[in-house]
Amino acid sequence: MAVLVNFKICDNARECGGVGVCPTGALYYDEEKKTLAIDNDKCISCGRCEKECPIGAIRVTKTDEEYEQIKKSIEEDDRKIEDLFVDRYGATPLSDFFQIDEAEIAEKVKISKCVFVELYDDDSIECLLKSIPIKNLSQAIDDEVMYYKVGASHISLEKYDISSLPALLIFKNGNFEGAVEGYYSLDEEEVLLRKIKTIYNK
Asked: Radius of gyration of the chain from Cα atoms?
Protein backbone atom coordinates (compact mmCIF):
# COMPACT_ATOMS: atom_id res chain seq x y z
CA MET A 1 0.00 0.00 0.00
CA ALA A 2 1.61 3.23 -1.12
CA VAL A 3 1.03 6.74 -2.44
CA LEU A 4 2.86 8.11 -5.46
CA VAL A 5 2.96 11.78 -6.45
CA ASN A 6 3.75 12.87 -9.98
CA PHE A 7 5.83 15.95 -9.22
CA LYS A 8 6.15 16.68 -12.93
CA ILE A 9 2.62 18.07 -12.85
CA CYS A 10 2.03 18.64 -9.11
CA ASP A 11 2.18 22.30 -8.04
CA ASN A 12 3.48 21.18 -4.63
CA ALA A 13 1.22 23.56 -2.73
CA ARG A 14 1.06 23.74 1.05
CA GLU A 15 -2.73 23.92 0.63
CA CYS A 16 -2.88 20.55 -1.17
CA GLY A 17 -6.36 19.10 -0.78
CA GLY A 18 -4.95 15.60 -0.56
CA VAL A 19 -3.09 16.51 2.62
CA GLY A 20 -6.29 17.89 4.09
CA VAL A 21 -8.28 14.69 3.62
CA CYS A 22 -5.60 12.15 4.57
CA PRO A 23 -6.86 10.46 7.77
CA THR A 24 -3.47 9.13 8.90
CA GLY A 25 -1.00 11.86 7.93
CA ALA A 26 0.64 9.64 5.33
CA LEU A 27 0.55 12.54 2.86
CA TYR A 28 1.79 15.76 4.41
CA TYR A 29 3.60 19.01 3.64
CA ASP A 30 7.20 19.10 4.84
CA GLU A 31 7.68 22.67 6.06
CA GLU A 32 11.45 22.31 6.29
CA LYS A 33 11.91 21.02 2.74
CA LYS A 34 8.96 23.03 1.34
CA THR A 35 7.48 20.07 -0.49
CA LEU A 36 4.78 17.42 -0.27
CA ALA A 37 6.05 14.29 1.43
CA ILE A 38 4.82 10.74 1.93
CA ASP A 39 5.07 8.34 4.85
CA ASN A 40 3.85 5.13 3.26
CA ASP A 41 4.07 3.27 6.57
CA LYS A 42 0.98 5.26 7.56
CA CYS A 43 -0.90 4.83 4.27
CA ILE A 44 -4.06 2.71 4.42
CA SER A 45 -4.84 3.08 0.69
CA CYS A 46 -8.20 4.72 1.35
CA GLY A 47 -7.88 6.71 -1.89
CA ARG A 48 -9.17 10.00 -0.48
CA CYS A 49 -6.11 11.99 -1.54
CA GLU A 50 -6.30 10.63 -5.09
CA LYS A 51 -9.95 11.67 -5.42
CA GLU A 52 -9.14 15.13 -4.08
CA CYS A 53 -6.42 15.88 -6.65
CA PRO A 54 -7.99 17.64 -9.68
CA ILE A 55 -5.24 16.66 -12.13
CA GLY A 56 -4.41 13.12 -11.11
CA ALA A 57 -0.96 13.89 -9.71
CA ILE A 58 -1.64 11.76 -6.62
CA ARG A 59 -2.02 8.02 -7.14
CA VAL A 60 -2.82 5.37 -4.54
CA THR A 61 -1.64 1.81 -5.10
CA LYS A 62 -2.77 -1.36 -3.36
CA THR A 63 -0.41 -3.98 -4.80
CA ASP A 64 3.26 -4.15 -5.72
CA GLU A 65 2.31 -4.73 -9.35
CA GLU A 66 0.09 -1.65 -9.40
CA TYR A 67 2.84 0.38 -7.72
CA GLU A 68 5.40 -0.53 -10.38
CA GLN A 69 2.92 0.13 -13.19
CA ILE A 70 2.01 3.61 -11.95
CA LYS A 71 5.63 4.43 -11.12
CA LYS A 72 6.58 3.59 -14.70
CA SER A 73 3.76 5.72 -16.13
CA ILE A 74 4.96 8.68 -14.04
CA GLU A 75 8.53 8.21 -15.24
CA GLU A 76 7.32 8.19 -18.85
CA ASP A 77 5.04 11.22 -18.42
CA ASP A 78 6.52 14.02 -20.52
CA ARG A 79 4.22 16.76 -19.20
CA LYS A 80 5.48 19.69 -17.13
CA ILE A 81 3.71 21.82 -14.54
CA GLU A 82 3.93 24.76 -16.97
CA ASP A 83 1.72 22.85 -19.39
CA LEU A 84 -1.10 22.85 -16.86
CA PHE A 85 -0.76 26.53 -15.98
CA VAL A 86 -1.29 27.62 -19.58
CA ASP A 87 -5.07 27.48 -19.26
CA ARG A 88 -5.04 29.95 -16.38
CA TYR A 89 -2.46 32.46 -17.52
CA GLY A 90 -2.29 32.07 -21.28
CA ALA A 91 1.45 31.56 -20.81
CA THR A 92 3.77 29.97 -18.29
CA PRO A 93 3.14 31.50 -14.84
CA LEU A 94 6.55 33.17 -14.65
CA SER A 95 6.17 34.97 -17.97
CA ASP A 96 7.41 38.56 -17.67
CA PHE A 97 4.56 39.67 -19.92
CA PHE A 98 1.91 38.85 -17.32
CA GLN A 99 3.92 39.77 -14.21
CA ILE A 100 3.91 43.55 -13.73
CA ASP A 101 4.35 46.07 -10.91
CA GLU A 102 2.20 48.98 -9.77
CA ALA A 103 4.00 51.50 -11.97
CA GLU A 104 2.91 49.56 -15.07
CA ILE A 105 -0.77 49.25 -14.18
CA ALA A 106 -1.75 52.72 -15.45
CA GLU A 107 -0.10 51.99 -18.79
CA LYS A 108 -1.59 48.51 -19.18
CA VAL A 109 -5.19 49.50 -18.39
CA LYS A 110 -5.17 52.08 -21.19
CA ILE A 111 -4.42 49.48 -23.84
CA SER A 112 -7.55 47.34 -23.44
CA LYS A 113 -11.16 48.12 -22.56
CA CYS A 114 -11.21 45.53 -19.78
CA VAL A 115 -8.23 44.56 -17.63
CA PHE A 116 -8.07 42.19 -14.66
CA VAL A 117 -5.13 42.53 -12.28
CA GLU A 118 -4.66 39.79 -9.69
CA LEU A 119 -2.89 40.74 -6.46
CA TYR A 120 -1.24 38.00 -4.44
CA ASP A 121 1.43 37.26 -1.87
CA ASP A 122 3.15 34.06 -0.78
CA ASP A 123 0.64 33.48 2.00
CA SER A 124 -2.39 33.85 -0.28
CA ILE A 125 -1.34 31.52 -3.08
CA GLU A 126 -3.82 28.66 -3.26
CA CYS A 127 -3.41 25.55 -5.38
CA LEU A 128 -3.47 27.24 -8.79
CA LEU A 129 -4.72 24.15 -10.53
CA LYS A 130 -7.91 24.42 -8.50
CA SER A 131 -8.33 28.09 -9.31
CA ILE A 132 -10.77 29.35 -11.90
CA PRO A 133 -9.14 29.82 -15.34
CA ILE A 134 -9.00 33.43 -16.42
CA LYS A 135 -10.82 32.62 -19.66
CA ASN A 136 -13.79 31.51 -17.53
CA LEU A 137 -13.79 34.81 -15.64
CA SER A 138 -14.10 36.72 -18.90
CA GLN A 139 -17.50 35.07 -19.39
CA ALA A 140 -18.90 37.53 -16.84
CA ILE A 141 -18.57 40.33 -19.39
CA ASP A 142 -18.97 40.70 -23.14
CA ASP A 143 -15.55 42.20 -23.82
CA GLU A 144 -12.14 40.66 -24.32
CA VAL A 145 -10.10 40.67 -21.12
CA MET A 146 -6.41 41.32 -20.62
CA TYR A 147 -4.99 39.76 -17.47
CA TYR A 148 -1.96 40.62 -15.34
CA LYS A 149 -0.71 39.74 -11.88
CA VAL A 150 1.13 41.83 -9.30
CA GLY A 151 2.93 40.74 -6.14
CA ALA A 152 1.49 42.50 -3.10
CA SER A 153 4.93 43.76 -2.14
CA HIS A 154 4.96 45.79 -5.37
CA ILE A 155 1.70 47.66 -4.89
CA SER A 156 -0.11 49.93 -2.41
CA LEU A 157 -3.12 47.95 -1.18
CA GLU A 158 -4.57 51.06 0.47
CA LYS A 159 -4.83 52.77 -2.92
CA TYR A 160 -7.39 50.19 -4.01
CA ASP A 161 -8.93 49.70 -0.55
CA ILE A 162 -7.78 46.07 -0.40
CA SER A 163 -7.81 44.37 3.00
CA SER A 164 -7.29 40.71 2.07
CA LEU A 165 -5.47 38.67 -0.56
CA PRO A 166 -5.67 37.34 -3.16
CA ALA A 167 -7.68 40.08 -4.83
CA LEU A 168 -8.83 40.81 -8.38
CA LEU A 169 -8.78 44.45 -9.53
CA ILE A 170 -11.20 45.25 -12.34
CA PHE A 171 -10.49 48.11 -14.76
CA LYS A 172 -12.80 49.40 -17.50
CA ASN A 173 -11.76 51.99 -20.09
CA GLY A 174 -8.72 52.82 -17.98
CA ASN A 175 -10.70 53.39 -14.79
CA PHE A 176 -10.65 51.28 -11.63
CA GLU A 177 -14.18 49.94 -11.14
CA GLY A 178 -13.74 47.79 -8.06
CA ALA A 179 -12.21 44.62 -6.65
CA VAL A 180 -13.14 41.13 -5.55
CA GLU A 181 -11.21 39.92 -2.52
CA GLY A 182 -10.50 36.38 -1.35
CA TYR A 183 -9.94 33.00 -2.96
CA TYR A 184 -12.72 31.33 -4.95
CA SER A 185 -12.58 27.63 -5.74
CA LEU A 186 -13.98 26.01 -8.86
CA ASP A 187 -17.19 25.24 -6.97
CA GLU A 188 -17.67 28.97 -6.35
CA GLU A 189 -17.18 30.04 -9.95
CA GLU A 190 -20.75 31.28 -10.45
CA VAL A 191 -20.54 33.40 -7.30
CA LEU A 192 -17.34 35.03 -8.50
CA LEU A 193 -18.71 35.61 -12.01
CA ARG A 194 -21.74 37.41 -10.58
CA LYS A 195 -19.53 39.66 -8.48
CA ILE A 196 -17.33 40.53 -11.45
CA LYS A 197 -20.36 41.25 -13.63
CA THR A 198 -21.89 43.51 -10.97
CA ILE A 199 -18.68 45.53 -10.64
CA TYR A 200 -18.07 45.77 -14.39
CA ASN A 201 -21.63 46.82 -15.27
CA LYS A 202 -22.27 49.23 -12.41
From this structure: 19
